[in-house]
Amino acid sequence: MSNEDEEIDGKSKITNILLIVVLLVALGWVNYLYFSKHISSNPERINNFIAVDNNINKFRIPVSAVFFYPYSQNGRKILASQTNPRILVAPYTGYLYSKQNVAKAYNWLLPWKGKIKNVVLVAQNTNPNLNGIFFNKHDIIEGENKKLRINTSLNEFLQKQTSEKVFYRDAGKEQAITSQISLINNIFGARINFATIVYSPNKKLAVQQMLLPFVKDKNSLLIFSADMSGHYTEPQGEQSAENIDLVVDLAREAHLYPKVFDLVNFEDMEEQNYRLLEIKNEKPLTTLEQELESLNSYAHLYGADLLKIAKVSLDEAVLYHKSFKPERENYPDVLFNRGAAFVNLYKDGKLRGSSGMLLPSQAVAFAVAQSSYAAALEDKNFTPITKSELSQIKINLNLLTGFEKVKYKNEADLLRKLHIGSDGLVIRDGNRQGVFLPSEWKNYPKPQEFLNNLKIKTGMSPAYWSNRIKVYRFKAVEISRDEN
């Protein structure tokens, strides 16, 4: 073979290799696109969920945003996921402040936008030359290119609640008012009954009486726009508690409790003796508690979607014995973040099937779908669910946090360390392992009873104990079909 032939042959081999490489890359890319669209899970975990708004893609942590929720008739707190708030305290200035800082808090209102009919935006007057209670003198108020119409009937109702004389001025000149307009518009649009109040500090009691009917009304929301700067020094310190005195007094009179979105500025405000600190009783959150907060937020926004997936999967399993795989184009992308989930199926109030995953190894949408299938057909403690039963089945989901190892000296010490009502528990002894969700506290309300029955489920005698048993706790957010 001549040198020329060898050169041509070498070039041909190189060309073939390049073509193979290009083909493999193209094939890999096509597989990647299909995998990403139909099968794969996002790397993010729902345990670290941060709410996303349609208009603002990412949020920084909000500064001192606070919601207030009611107690039930028996004196227990109504969970934030089960009722709309009555009051929102939203900063319009402060350390690190920008619109994104409070956007996460406003985003929490999205599921309630159809229930909340009346919104009153309240700010404290900062002009020392003006004194009184002021309503907006124009029919329209604008902020950041968004507009809201003032509701005349709502204004009249507010004024009837007090004997004080009220005045009209342009609220569009108040930063505390205009800074909130676009956020309110983004959530509620123009359909709500809207009003603004700007008041001087010496009119606080009169405004409190005006607003009291609203904090007791489940269809109303009061938004207090407050300066959270924390930069005031004495003797201005008393005035620096702008709008907070009124919030605290209203919350106490209406028997509301606070849910704090962020504690960053509370430490700064402590030196200023803000009255808001009188109701601050939160301790620093543990890792599990932080994850629980994220899961609560996630369930609040996407719980209904997960229940739909569970229902479709249940129907497919029982009616056709097929497994259901959610596809990305049919659901919000955040449902493909990784998460651990359990599915419990109930009939006539009694457990009829259960299955779940302890670790966030795949998309929560897949975890829910697979667990629904397994709970319906593969739970060895029950016979498979039949078609005739399907209409009677109630679906219950649990989203799980990560795990925390519980260190103990003996069984008695372990029982003292259990958090009654909120701890889920995993025990492991050799090859035997058992898990109880936090919901099992409803069936076994005493720690010893709870642990004994978990031992039985694990295959142990209730009287058995060994300090070699490994114990892990976790938290869970429960989502019921009846609540969505």
What do these coordinates show?
This protein is globular. Helix content is 34%, strand content 23%. The protein has an 8-stranded mixed β-sheet, with helices on both faces. Strands 14-13-15-20 form a 4-stranded antiparallel β-sheet, covered by helices on one side. Strands 16-19-17-18 form a 4-stranded antiparallel β-sheet, with helices on one face. The model is unreliable at 32-38, 52-63, 230-241 and 263-284 (pLDDT under 50). The chain is built from 11 helices and 20 strands. The protein is an alpha/beta fold and 484 residues long. Helix 2 crosses helix 4 and helix 8 crosses helix 9. It has 3 domains: 66-282, Protocatechuate 4,5-dioxygenase, Chain B (3-Layer(aba) Sandwich); 290-401, 2-Layer Sandwich (Glycoprotein, Type 4 Pilin); 404-478, Hypothetical protein ph0010, domain 2 (Dna Ligase, domain 1).
**Strand ordering within the main sheet:** 8-5-9-4-10-3-2-11
Spatial shape: globular
What distance separates the N and C termini? 79 Å
CATH topology of the largest domain: Protocatechuate 4,5-dioxygenase, Chain B
Report the top-level CATH class of the largest domain.
Alpha Beta
Helix content: 25-40%
Uncertain parts: 32-38, 52-63, 230-241, 263-284
Radius of gyration: 29 Å
Give the count of helical stretches.
11
Largest sheet properties: 8 strands, mixed
